[in-house]
Amino acid sequence: MGFYFNSHTLASFFLLLAFPAFTYGWGIVGHQIICQITQDRLSESAAAAVKELLPAYAKNDLSTLCSWADTIKFRYHWSSELHYIDTPDDLCTYNYNRDCKDEDGVKGRCVSGAITNYTNQLLTYGSSVDESQYNLTEALLFLSHLMGDIHQPLHVGFTSDRGGNTIPVRWFRRKSELHKVWDKDIIETTEDRFYDDVVEEFVDALKQNITGEWSDQVVKWEKCSNNKVACPDVYASESIQTACNWAYKDVENNTVLEDDYFLSRLPIVNLRLAEGGVRLAGTLNRIFK
Ligand SMILES: *[C@@H]1O[C@H](CO)[C@@H](O)[C@H](O)[C@H]1NC(C)=O
Ligand SMILES: *[C@@H]1O[C@H](CO)[C@@H](O)[C@H](O)[C@H]1NC(C)=O
Ligand SMILES: *[C@@H]1O[C@H](CO)[C@@H](O)[C@H](O)[C@H]1NC(C)=O
Ligand SMILES: *[C@@H]1O[C@H](CO)[C@@H](O)[C@H](O)[C@H]1NC(C)=O
After folding, report:
1. Among the four 43, 56, 162, 281, which has the fewest Cβ within 10 Å?
2. What pLDDT does 146 receive?
């Protein structure tokens, strides 16, 4: 969920220096996985647009910059509230009109509104609209990151616990918070235990299921009804439901989370990473048609 920029900003800043991982939605690796799944699935025209928009130093690898939006939160303070949605405690539902706002109540300022915003900006690519109006490189990097975040179930979480950020838990023997368990801990333990700490092997396993196990569902994941280009509200609703059914379930302050929790939640994390990657590709393919 990241930080809240109020009187605690300075304290938060020092906390960030001490615990740099704290603010990363899905963690760097989660975003990298999603964008690696995406890049392989781009149409010819989308791949060309992505290549042109990426800075040269990215060497046409979108996944190297999929955490850019986290790294600029302190330079672009206004962007930190665009990574998540706070929903009413215990309701387990999301509603755009009710929930998509920032802490000052400004409507549209949430991860769903931001996905629509950056999608609309990218739709001006190659058109006659004044090119200096938007920075489409930034729009691409925001969209690629936020499409990941909206699939992290606890990025659409309860208001009072900030999407699990204020629920202290133990992850095996280490201290953690529930939000961080879903951003990073499950993914890191998976890499360590099943993939020899090689991210590419994890990505390959997900890709294999996308073209195998899950191939029947993939068409449905990609689809966006009513000819819409982006469908973030659907993904946000899925996330809060998943947060209730899996992330928050059976967890209280200081619960010790071990294999029972890890092994039962891992398939959910796998699915959300795969859906995030497939849908980012689907959205970019519709944008750059
Ligand atoms: C839309 O994008 C612009 C440019 O980055 C930004 O200033 C604005 O805050 C964004 N609004 C939302 C809701 O994403
Ligand atoms: C667009 O944004 C990128 C990343 O912040 C920056 O490096 C680049 O200079 C910007 N382009 C323009 C034309 O301002
Ligand atoms: C792929 O699908 C198989 C069969 O359902 C499952 O056992 C495995 O954990 C899945 N792997 C990933 C990375 O999703
Ligand atoms: C759980 O811990 C947090 C942070 O220490 C605290 O703010 C919150 O009140 C606690 N919740 C309960 C139900 O005890």
Report:
1. 56
2. 98
Q: Kindly report, residue by residue over 276-287, the tens digit of the pLDDT.
A: 999 999 999 999
Sort 132 into a burial class: Cβ within 10 Å, 0-12 / 13-18 / 19+.
exposed
**Ligand 2: which residue has its CA nearest to atom 9?**
135
Q: Please list, in sequence order, all residues whose beta carbon lies within 8 angstroms of the beta carbon of residue 215, skipping any fewer than 6 positions away.
A: none
Pocket of ligand 3 (CB under 6 A): 205-206, 209, 213, 270
**Alpha carbon of 74 to ligand 1 centroid (Å):** 15
Nearest in space to 33 (alpha carbons), one of 194, 242, 196, 207: 207
- The whole-angstrom separation of Cα 78 and Cα 102 is 10
Tens digit of pLDDT for each residue in 129-145? 766 789 999 999 999 99
- Asked if residues 56 and 133 have their Cβ atoms less than 8 Å apart, the reply is no
Answer whether 112's CB lies under 8 Å from 150's CB. yes
Paired with 171 in beta bridges are: 174, 257
Q: Which CATH number among 3.90.550.10, 3.40.50.300, 1.10.8.60, 1.10.575.10 corresponds to the domain 26-287? A: 1.10.575.10
Going by alpha carbons, the residue nearest to atom 6 of ligand 4 is: 166
Nearest CA to ligand 2 atom 4: 138
Q: Are 207 and 196 in contact (CB under 8 A)?
A: no
Domain boundaries, the chain: 26-287
